[in-house]
């Protein structure tokens, strides 16, 4: 957003003004609530730590991902050559049961991740961890034992440790391995999703993972993707806050064709009533001031990225 600067309440590249504004707590925190840490936050609620947050003070929707609160690994279901967990499957036709009673957040380890991403993962009580194919190797190297490994296993060397459930898919499939893991979690009833890695490496895979966040949002989930240097959120919410992080930049991009009525307050490059389009990245590289930045919009879907410059970057 480096060329959007404000003069008084007017001067940016498209004639839109900036406002001052205040903030409240929350990484993508809550409005009229306490927000959360490193997540998407809640509306009129308390949110939760490390994940996506809740609505109306509950900390989650539908029990934070568990429908019926039942489940368990029994490998009975299958579709398109994939085994199931408690009768579910990873191809969009699951049974809506939480595979791990009490699990609150679905964490997916993608096959590609920048060095240090798995080690930077902070587990929460109730995480249900799925490794997508070679994501298992990164998780295992960081001392993380997943609840499930899923994929076509074209990139995993060796086999997962004994006792870890595995769902194997054909390499000739419509979904990426990360997509299979996401669909499994959605079918199991989870609402809060954290994808570890999935940023960098092959550009097509990075873009596909961003599309998966949109798919997750379309199906009622709350997606977040994170590696060692970046945290990405996608949201349809009308208002939220970003907690400042020392040395970080934040970028506000339109994932839909346009986002109307965009206001960014308490940031170096503030703006008011702007129509942000997906064909012009004017929202890149904004900077925090003292206190959280406030972001509001009237319509559209936003992709929010909080980034640090990696060493040597």
| Poorly predicted spans | 1-96
Give the overall pLDDT as a whole number: 74
Strand segment tally: 16
The number of helical elements comes to: 3
Integer count of domains: 2
The proportion of strand residues reads 15-25%
The main sheet comes to:
10 strands, mixed
Distance between the termini: 19 Å
Structural category is: alpha/beta
Strand order of the largest sheet: 6-5-4-3-7-8-9-16-11-14
Sketch the topology as an H/E string, one letter per element: EEEEHEEHEHEEEEEEEEE
Q: Briefly, what CATH class of the largest domain?
A: Alpha Beta
Shape: globular
Overall CATH architecture of the largest domain: 3-Layer(aba) Sandwich
Query: Over the alpha carbons, how many angstroms does the gyration radius reach?
Result: 20 Å
CATH topology of the largest domain: Rossmann fold
Can you tell me the CATH superfamily of the largest domain?
Answer: Thiamin pyrophosphokinase, catalytic domain
Helix content: 10-25%
